[in-house]
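Continuing the batch. This is chain 6 of the set; chains 1 through 5 are on the previous pages. Same settings as before, nothing changed between runs. Recording input and output for traceability.
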Amino acid sequence: MTTFNLADLWETLCDAGPDAGCLVAGPVRHTRRSLDEAANQVAHTLGVEPGTRVGIYSRNRAEYVEALLGCWKAGAVPVNINWRYTLDELRYVADDAELEVMMVEDEYVAMVENLDIRQTIPLGSWAGADASRIGFEKVPRSGDDLYVLYTGGTTGMPKGVMWRHEDFFYACVLGGNPLDPIKQPGDIARNATGAGFPMDPLVLGPLMHGGGQWLTLICMYAGGKAILYTERSFDAEKVLDLVARERATSIGIIGDAMARPLAEAALANPGRWDLASLVTLGNGGAMLSGAVKGQLHDAFPNALVNDSYGASETGAAGSEIGASGGDRPAFTADERTSVLDPDTLEASPPGVEGLFARRGYIPLGYWKDDAKTAATFRTDANGVRWVLPGDRAVRDEQNRIVLYGRGSGCINTGGEKVFPEEVEAAIRAHPDVFDAVVVGAPDERFGQKVVALVALRDGAPELTLDALREHCRKRIAGYKAPNALILGEAPRTNVGKPDYATATRIAAERL
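Output for chain 6:
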């Protein structure tokens, strides 16, 4: 019997339509049947007890998806490994997650040799193994099986977010249909015949992060074909080549760092690519500023911009489609989303700042961290359990939730709170600015000052602090405008998010 288990759901979908294409990754093209057989080979190669923690240490490639499905088939718990980790970070996650097995891409084998891991499996080495399915009598499955995602957050070491399969399926995989989630697990079979929400997105984000995994799984379980970007570095022209070649219906973008080069490449080369297949441009994982959203509308006039919000602890929590946007991310709230007073857990009135919160399909908590779990997952006076990941927010008069950013990144200057995301958006609207990251730095008078690290467009004239402050004051309050300017780079992580740790270090060294 099919349950709300990710392996069960996949096998039901596969049996109902085995020959449809479901995954493209570089030279590899999988139908559901061929991907299912590869996942079976993974499960047989693992040969582990249910509940075993298995690390996946790889960049984007077909074998990553094979490994995920194979782990779930075997009852194992796959754990995402960030290939940017230092050895200390890698060792911490391996120990914290209690990894027994590591499936690893060739270039990272030397790193894994430094760990106390029982078994190392080279990625793809399962080819040729038994491709039959493991019977239910050997691996009991249920919607209570664990999905674990390690998230770095903004401070501290990575922590493992624990989801039940059923909660994860609805919160992060959107229930097999973003518009009409399935009601019973067997209903997933309808998606094999096009009755779901088929789409063929180009996934730019790395599978080692939630955003990349989730978009891939949303597409596959809804009956579509996921197209993975497998290049080692981001190249806007190669992305558009792939969109045109595979007739992608959407692009999964991560903030301005990806959106702006894509828009500018399309605008600079009109007619070079046939992009008629594009229906949406989906953004998530990092803020999309109003100025860059406008560029996307100009570059891809036939595609809707879907700006979404989510976190490792909330799943897909909301979106705003086609709005012109401002300099703060905002989205329409549903019945499971609110802004709460952090002390009382009561709903904050419109216009009153509180913490973004979500209930319903939410995680069990953080793996082996009762203190952080208690602080983030809280129960109100009516017995309703909420997750509060830390984002400051306000509900506006149109019942939209406007996000201000994480309290941990907030800059306190003379008692005033400044959220970096808001200042970054204002700076990026300057015509000579390509990108910006904003951090706080010590200040004798005000406690902290606002520091802008700015990357200018090629050929742009030198930008002065006074000119930047004058520009910003037209968009944000004067106390939020930068007090210091560092030109040259705006550091970002491999997934396109502002790298505040590196920016803070640079600011300390240069100021």
